[in-house]
Write a structure and sequence with these properties.
Order of helices and strands: HHHHEHEHEHHEHEHEHHHEEEHH
Low-confidence stretches: 88-93
Number of strands: 9
Organism: Ignelater luminosus
Oligomer: single chain
Protein name: AAA+ ATPase domain-containing protein
CATH architecture of the largest domain: 3-Layer(aba) Sandwich
CATH topology of the largest domain: Rossmann fold
Largest sheet: 6 strands, mixed
Bound molecules: adenosine-5'-triphosphate, magnesium ion
CATH superfamily of the largest domain: P-loop containing nucleotide triphosphate hydrolases
CATH class of the largest domain: Alpha Beta
Strand order of the largest sheet: 1-3-4-5-2-6
InterPro entries: AAA+_ATPase, ATPase_AAA_core, ATPase_AAA_CS, MT-severing_AAA_ATPase, P-loop_NTPase, Spast_Vps4_C
Keywords: ATP-binding, Nucleotide-binding
Distance between the termini: 35 Å
Radius of gyration: 32 Å
Family: Belongs to the AAA ATPase family.
Length: about 425
């Protein structure tokens, strides 16, 4: 506690003591405003006024002090009313307003907890088998998170690294990895984005951070993963003209991170696309920082196989080769877009099709040149019965056409920047 905080606290206690003495005097002789009572009111008023002045000249950012400061104007008004109206009910109403304040605080606390509880989610995938490629990352995460949970004796003589930073270009699977890890660990998953924390109300963001870590720590008996996405949105490098609220937010976050080091069941995983924007103090806190790169050629093969796993495309086909060369520099999410685009090609063809044949189970398929003219049905797709149309299977030509239409979203210059950053740190 700083000297200023101690001073403020002492002064506040003096004022409260004075106020309590005053209440006791009024309780004994409620009707009489004696000279001694008037003097006591004045002393108390003076103390409260002094506190207000100090606070105005040098605002306090300590949470406890801010609570104190927030009740001062009310206390001051109550004392003045008491002095000029001489009515002891004013003191009682002051007590009532204190209890209103207490219930307001409880409500505020509940609102904070409710908004944080919304960030607790179920992993959207089953586990590492839903992550294509990235074998080295899965291995690191298994060593850092899964092994200590299942074989804690291995870590008896060393501290568990429970803060991890994943950084890299967009769409490379950082968020997917965290979901997979949470599923593998059967962990309780909190997924927090800056929008869950940043608030336009003064002091609210720190309160949200505080509540977040409080709730997470309450789960300490169960493996918990706290995933903070786009962490650069909360912890940018400090700059000279940085806003006060941003400094306070970072300080609160840094304190909470330090406290988390002693909670082996809680794993903090943060993700960012801009590691160079992170505050160095914050960056250093991560015990493990992992670069998630664009998928390599074998990883692109794994990704495309995963995204087309329920199709008739042969995994052994030599048509993969040109596709893998063509998709050099694509991210996992670019490849997901590409496959989505390819799946749409047979569907788009249905819209223009006018000739149909009936196949097994009374389903309609677009006719091809091999079908005999007599078996053809001529109509638009809209005229066919609901749920009766079958599209043709997706082919490599569709994937190639999609690769021409869907461009990569990350430039070579962007990748260079990540690589340079990796070499510097
Ligand atoms: N290795 C992967 N395995 C499976 N799917 C992946 C992989 N990489 C990317 N994807 C696909 O790309 C999409 C985006 O992935 P994700 O959201 O995990 O990327 P990210 O790295 O978190 O991106 P951002 O940095 O923009 O948040 C996923 O929904 C998934 O379809
Ligand atoms: Mg993400």
């Amino acid at each position: 506690m700083s000297d200023h905080q101690t001073f403020l606290l002492d002064l506040y206690h003096e004022a409260v003591q004075c106020f309590q003495d005053l209440s006791a005097v009024f309780e004994q002789t409620p009707q009489l405003l004696t000279l001694s009572k008037r003097q006591q009111i004045d002393i108390c008023l003076e103390k409260v006024q002094h506190l207000i002045q100090i606070e105005e000249a040098n605002p306090s950012y300590d949470k406890h002090n801010r609570e104190i400061v927030s009740v001062l104007p009310l206390l001051y008004t109550q004392l003045q009313q008491l002095k000029y109206n001489h009515n002891f009910t004013q003191i009682t109403s002051c007590a009532t307003s204190t209890s209103i304040k207490t219930s307001q605080k409880a409500k505020e606390e509940k609102d904070l907890r409710d908004s944080i509880k919304k960030t607790q989610i179920t992993p959207r995938i089953q586990g590492f088998e839903d992550i294509a490629g990235l074998f080295f990352v899965k291995k690191i995460l298994a060593t850092l998170v899964l092994l200590p949970i299942r074989q804690p004796q291995l870590y008896a003589n060393q501290k568990i690294s429970n803060s991890i930073l994943l950084y890299g270009p967009p769409g490379t699977g950082k968020t997917q990895l965290v979901h997979a890890l949470a599923a593998e660990a059967s962990a309780c998953l909190f997924s927090v984005a800056p929008s869950n924390i940043l608030s336009c109300y003064i002091g609210q963001s720190e309160k949200l951070i505080h509540t977040l870590f409080k709730i997470v720590k309450e789960k300490r008996d169960h493996t918990t993963i706290l995933f903070m996405d786009e962490i650069d949105g909360l912890c940018r490098r400090r700059s000279g003209d940085e806003a006060e609220w941003s400094r306070r937010l970072k300080t609160e976050l840094l304190c909470q991170l330090t406290a988390l080091e002693d909670c082996p069941n809680i794993f903090l995983i943060c993700a960012t696309n801009c590691p160079w924007d992170l505050d160095p103090a914050f960056y250093r806190r991560f015990q493990k920082r992992i670069y998630i790169p664009l998928p390599s050629r074998p990883d692109r093969f794994d990704l495309l196989k995963l995204f087309t796993k329920n199709t008739s495309l042969e995994t052994t086909s030599n048509e993969w080769g040109p596709l893998l060369s063509k998709t050099e520099g694509y991210s996992g999410s670019d490849l997901a877009d590409l496959v989505r685009h390819a799946f749409n090609i047979p569907l788009t063809e249905l819209i223009d099709n006018k000739s149909w044949v009936v196949v097994n189970d009374n389903l309609y398929q677009p006719a091809s040149v091999n079908h005999s003219f007599t078996s053809l049905i001529q109509c638009d797709v809209q005229e066919l019965p609901p749920k009766s149309v079958q599209a043709r299977n997706i082919q490599f030509t569709d994937l190639m056409a999609a690769a021409n239409a869907v461009k990569k979203t990350i430039s070579d210059a962007d990748i260079k920047r990540y690589e340079m950053f990796e070499n510097i740190i």
